[in-house]
Design brief:
The chain has four helices and no strands. By secondary structure, the protein is mainly α.
Length: 148
C-alpha cells in the first residue's frame, strides 16, 4: 500500500508496514509473557524465556529485512523523487537495517559471548586416536570414502 502522493509512496508504505509488523510481533511476544505472569504466576524472566522473546521476532525480521532495506535505500538514494523528510527517514531506516545484523553479532556471536566448543571425533581425527578402554588401538578413518 502507498502512503502519501509522491513517487516514493509505495517504498515509504513498505518501510512503515514492515516496521509495523516487527513491532506487532514484539508486542505479541511480551503480551504472551505478561499473560503467563498474570494468569499462571510464572516469574517474568521464565515467561520471557518460554515465549523466546525477543528471539521469535528474529524470524519475521530476517524475512522483511531485505525488502525494508531496499525500500529504505530507494528513499535515501533518490531524494529528488519525494520530500526531503522521506530521504531522511530512508537513511535512518537503512542504518537500522544495517545495525540489526551487527547487533545480533554483538549479542550472540562475538568471541566473548559465543560459548560453543568443538568436540573432536576420535574416528576421523588422528590427533585424538589412541587407546580405547580395552587397550586396543583405535583405527582412524581417512580419505573421502571413509565410513565413520
Amino acid at each position: 500500500f502507498g502512503i502519501g502522493s509522491s513517487r516514493h509512496k509505495y517504498f515509504f508504505g513498505a518501510v512503515v508496514a514492515n516496521l509495523g509488523i516487527i513491532v506487532v510481533f514484539l508486542g505479541l511476544n511480551y503480551l504472551i509473557a505478561w499473560a503467563q505472569v498474570a494468569l499462571f504466576g510464572v516469574p517474568l524472566d521464565t515467561a520471557i524465556f518460554y515465549v523466546r522473546a525477543p528471539g521469535l521476532v528474529y524470524i519475521p525480521m530476517m524475512w522483511l529485512l531485505m525488502g525494508t532495506s531496499i525500500a529504505a535505500s530507494n528513499l535515501a538514494f533518490f531524494p529528488s523523487r519525494a520530500p526531503a523528510s522521506l530521504a531522511i527517514i530512508g537513511a535512518l531506516v537503512l542504518c537500522l537495517c544495517v545495525s540489526f545484523p551487527v547487533a545480533m553479532w554483538m549479542l550472540l556471536l562475538k568471541p566473548g559471548k559465543f560459548q560453543a566448543t568443538a568436540v573432536p571425533d576420535p574416528k576421523i581425527d588422528p590427533g585424538f586416536a589412541g587407546e580405547d578402554g580395552a587397550g586396543a588401538a583405535k583405527k582412524v578413518y581417512t580419505g573421502w570414502k571413509r565410513k565413520a
